[in-house]
Amino acid sequence: MKTNFLKIFAAGALAVLFSFTFIQMKTKLYIIGDSTAANKEEKAYPETGWGMALQSYFKTDVTVDNRALNGRSTKSFRAEKRWDPIFSTVKSR
């Protein structure tokens, strides 16, 4: 009787522990900014934006989506409606 209980308890505990590894929340980090953060072409090297290297500081549970552009500002992003695609995909948790 005690052995069956321990087997069932161990199986249940393993099921609970393994369920945490299957439920992984992914986070997407959006960068909106000017040339200091923007992705640069290879021909511009060694000039790089800080947004280009940011992904290397995260594991696979965080994705960096760099939307920064040269010559842009918060005002121009609003005027050009560049925020709209991001706002349409963002969900509250």
Short description:
This protein has 93 residues and is α+β, with helices and mostly antiparallel strands. It has helices at 2-22, 50-53, 74-79, 84-89, and strands at 27-31, 62-66.
Task: Using brief descriptors, characterize the structure shown.
93 residues; alpha+beta; two-stranded parallel ribbon; 2 strands; 11% strand
The number of helices is 4
Class by SSE composition? alpha+beta
Q: What's the main sheet like? A: 2 strands, parallel
- The gross shape turns out to be elongated
Proportion in β-strands: 5-15%
Number of strands: 2
Q: Are there runs of 5+ residues with pLDDT below 50, and where?
A: none
Euclidean distance between termini CA atoms: 44 Å
Helicity level? 25-40%
Largest sheet strand order: 1-2
Tell me, rounded to a whole number, the average pLDDT. 82
Provide the gyration radius in Å: 22 Å
Query: How would you spell out the order of helices and strands?
Result: HEHEHH
Please give a structural write-up.
The chain is an alpha+beta fold and 93 residues long. The chain has helices at residues 2-22, 50-53, 74-79, 84-89, and strands spanning 27-31, 62-66. A two-stranded parallel sheet has the order 1-2. The model has no long low-confidence stretch (mean pLDDT 82).
Layout: helices, strands, pairs:
Blueprint: H1 2-22, E1 27-31, H2 50-53, E2 62-66, H3 74-79, H4 84-89
Parallel strand pairs: 1-2
